[in-house]
Predict the 3D structure of the following.
Amino acid sequence: MTHILIAEDEQGISSLIEKGLRGNGLDTTIVTDGDSALRQAQTGEYDLMVLDLGLPGKDGFTVLRRLRESRNAIPVVILTARTSVADTVAGLQGGADDYMSKPFRFEELLARIRLRLNAVPRPPVTVVRHGEFSLDLRTRRAVVGDRAVDLTTREFLLAEMFLRHPGQVLSRKQLLSHVWGYDFDPGSNVVDVYVRYLRRKLGSDRIQTVRGQGYRLVGENVAVGSHG
């Protein structure tokens, strides 16, 4: 699934974009500051980033400059309240693939995102890794250290969700909708049951319960790559 990174600190705007993109079959992750935007964009996990210039911490110009200096070619669509010609030129010359001003129409943003996704073919990510735990998305093989682990289809999808969002608290609702679909009974305890299954197979301390919020994958830094 195509994965979009939304770097936006205004919750109303980020929620609007996320809802619209998910409704059009795109996966999303939201970050609210420049440091997180740069860190996530550098993982290689995302197909495109929607970037606000006025982020706290590192601003959008700095995030973009750091990415391009490191030869990171992730497509970037700037979405900002800055409407001056100077800012537009600076963004495009700094390596942005497109530039949109707020307020905006979601339909236009979606069209621009699709245009950039089609214009820049990227090799698919086939291996997701977090410390000694890795999943091969092509062969459906799971490995912990030097030990192969047999996972059912649901267990694999749940593990993949955790690996793609290391350290991030994922709610039961998020996990339920991603792995079982939106039509599944929201009152079900199936997420808790499958988290227990994963803990038995991967290690009891790998998935942490965050009381009242959900679960998160803990441990070492994430790395994402491709085979072949």
Observations:
- The chain has a mean pLDDT of 85.
- The chain is about 40% helix and 20% strand.
- Helices lie at 11-23, 34-41, 60-69, 85-93, 106-119, 153-164, 172-179, 190-202.
- The longest strand covers residues 3-7.
